Amino acid sequence: MNRRKLNVEELNRLSVEEFQSTGKTPLVVVLDNVRSRNNIGSVFRTGDAFRVEEIILCGITSVPPNAEIHKTALGAEDAVKWRYFEETLSAVQELKKAGFSVFAVEQTENSLSLENIRLDKSKRYAVVLGHEVHGVQQAVVDACDHCIEIPQFGTKHSLNVSVVAGIVIWDFFKQLNN
User: Fold this and answer.
1) CATH number of residue 171's parent domain
2) Taken in order 75, 81, 85, 88, is the CA torsion positive or negative?
């Protein structure tokens, strides 16, 4: 069995122009006051990998161009569409008016376990990911349609926001593109 690593040319990745004109996963990722530029860059890179429709950056979340974001995004910030909102609540309200079902990824009373979420391919979705310490703002949680919780079985009560993004985006991608 051949296990030679493929080089970049053999991976046949899209150019930025091809990416921008190709079909997207009907998913918007909202970053609610995410402070780490490395986490922001990682979300861009994951968003690129799974062709998210858009990333919305809110509050204290830094925006491109930024060297620290670029360090982990590796150029994905140039491919993935993004917008900035001063207030996350305004972004959520706009998404809901546009017909999106909006989920906060947060541990709440009556949150839904990610493993039990069943998505409708005919709908558009948005997920809100929160600040590394404080999570998603309560007012934003209250404005969302549902809350998703990732099951955890260790001693810690949370995961890094970029890890959460990877898990949630992958799960939504699998359901919405198969």
Assistant:
1) 3.40.1280.10
2) negative
